[in-house]
Write a structure and sequence with these properties.
alpha/beta, single chain, 152 residues
Length: 152
């Protein structure tokens, strides 16, 4: 994948370009390493093209009516939940640190005929297209795995 995490010039430290801190890079590498395995365990694109969802009904109920609103799901993995929100009519964007998972999510959404956006990046250093609002204005944030670690 050719997406960069963020587009700002990266700081230099002892002659090395820093993409993210060492732990974050290890995390990205680990998720990239298991991306294909995770993908094979999920529903195929045809599941979503038939209108099926991969969402907890309680989450949908709790979110309420999001008609006309923009939603972002942090740590979207291979996109099944983000695709499901898009099927429900939301402007859905998924963000993940694994460029491989983002690529797989894009492929699945395209094959399913679902309009969802997927962005490669770090939830702690949001890519410009999200941080600057170039995608859609954010009305609802989904971060079920990371909500305790994310800044408001």
């Amino acid at each position: 994948m050719d997406d960069d995490i963020g587009s700002e010039p990266l700081p230099s430290l002892l002659g090395y370009q820093l993409v993210t801190d060492e732990c974050t890079q290890h995390n990205a590498n680990a998720w990239n390493g298991i991306a294909e395995i995770n993908y094979k365990r999920t529903q195929p694109a045809s599941y979503f093209s038939e209108g099926n969802l991969r969402l907890n009904p309680l989450l949908v109920e709790t979110a309420g009516d999001l008609t006309g609103k923009a939603l972002i799901q942090f740590q979207c993995s291979t996109g099944e939940e983000t695709i499901s929100w898009a099927i429900l009519g939301e402007t859905a964007t998924g963000l993940d640190i694994s460029d491989i998972q983002v690529g797989l999510a894009r492929e699945k959404a395209k094959e399913a005929g679902v309009d969802a956006t997927f962005v490669h990046g770090d939830v702690m250093v949001l890519p410009d297209e999200i941080a600057n609002g170039r995608l859609a204005s954010l009305d609802f944030r989904l971060d079920r795995r990371s909500r305790r670690r994310l800044p408001e």
